[in-house]
């Protein structure tokens, strides 16, 4: 798929999702202890690539001196602007950051790399804009290390949201960081139980898509490694997230 058509799909999905996105995802990072994990210093300049409606970047509000967000979807940033007027927000692509080299102390990206087909240019850009003693923080959903399970998980994720590119196994994220010139300083994997009805609320997703996803779960849910279990009309499942803190190698 060309980069251009994926960007169009991504913008149209997130334009539709923007209204409900912040509500649906509120609190999803609360248990991760992201700020402590990032080792960020008081007064730091913190960037988020794929800042969306700003909920993740806002976690750093108590410690950062400046919060900078870059995102491809204007509708998502408009929501962030309304909620967090003190943030510096720019429409842009993570693969071509509109920022000077070495200008940030901490470059983060949360729940965004799995929307990117080619994450290496984004990681290299995050490294470029990070100061020599700065750090890069990745938070993203990951699959298992079983190839077939990751394929099935991605088939389901793309069915739910066509702007999804690929969730990767933890080993792939580690390799990508190393190739981007980053050295891993810390990592953590966190499993959380979710409900399909919260993941695909009727206010945000077309009904036929919800039905298609339910059909896929009934037929292939066991193959995804996400531990789907039916609860009445709903399903519970496991979402695995990985946090990686890295330094310039
Ligand atoms: C799932 S949302 C996550 C938003 C926010 N990080 C959060 O967790 O609340 C993904 C965001 O990444 C943005 N995005 C995807 N690819 C991008 C890229 N290459 N450059 C900048 N933003 C991107 C999308 O527009 C969307 O707003």
Q: Which regions contain 5 or more consecutive residues with pLDDT less than 50? A: none
CATH class: Alpha Beta
In angstroms, what separates the terminal alpha carbons? 32 Å
Instruction: Please give the CATH architecture.
Output: 3-Layer(aba) Sandwich
- Strand runs, count: 8
Structure characterization notes:
With 249 residues, the protein is α/β, with parallel strands linked by helices. It has one domain (3-194, 239-248): Vaccinia Virus protein VP39 (Rossmann fold), CATH 3.40.50.150. The chain is built from 8 helices and 8 strands; from the N terminus they run H-H-E-E-H-E-E-H-E-H-H-E-H-H-E-E. Strands 1, 2, 3, 4, 5, 6, 7 and 8 form an 8-stranded mixed beta sheet that branches. Helix 3 links the parallel strand 2 (66-71) and strand 3. Helix 5 (147-160) packs antiparallel against helix 8. The longest helix has 23 residues, at 3-25. The protein binds S-adenosylmethionine (SAM). S-adenosylmethionine (SAM) binds next to helix 1 and strand 2.
């Amino acid at each position: 798929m060309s980069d251009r058509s994926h960007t169009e799909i991504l913008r149209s999905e997130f334009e539709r999702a923007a209204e409900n996105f912040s509500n649906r995802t509120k609190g999803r990072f609360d248990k991760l202890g992201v700020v402590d994990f990032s080792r960020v210093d008081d007064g730091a300049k913190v960037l988020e690539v794929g800042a969306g409606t700003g909920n993740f970047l806002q976690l750093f509000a108590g410690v950062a001196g400046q919060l900078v967000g870059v995102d491809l979807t204007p509708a998502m940033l408009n929501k962030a602007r309304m909620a967090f007027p003190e943030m510096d927000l720019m429409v842009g692509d993570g693969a071509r950051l509109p920022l000077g080299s070495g200008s940030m102390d901490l470059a983060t990206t949360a729940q965004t790399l799995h929307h990117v087909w080619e994450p290496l240019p984004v990681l290299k850009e995050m490294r470029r804009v990070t100061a020599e003693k700065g750090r890069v923080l990745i938070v993203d959903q990951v699959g298992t290390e079983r190839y077939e399970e990751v394929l099935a998980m991605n088939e389901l994720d793309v069915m739910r949201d066509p702007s999804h590119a690929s969730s990767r196994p933890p080993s792939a994220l580690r390799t990508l960081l190393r190739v981007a010139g980053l050295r891993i300083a810390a990592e953590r994997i966190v499993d959380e139980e979710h409900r399909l009805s919260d993941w695909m609320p009727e206010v945000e997703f077309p009904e036929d898509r919800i039905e298609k996803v339910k059909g896929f779960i009934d037929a292939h849910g066991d193959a995804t490694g996400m531990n789907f279990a039916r609860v009445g009309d709903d399903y519970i499942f496991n979402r695995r997230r990985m946090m990686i803190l890295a330094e310039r190698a």
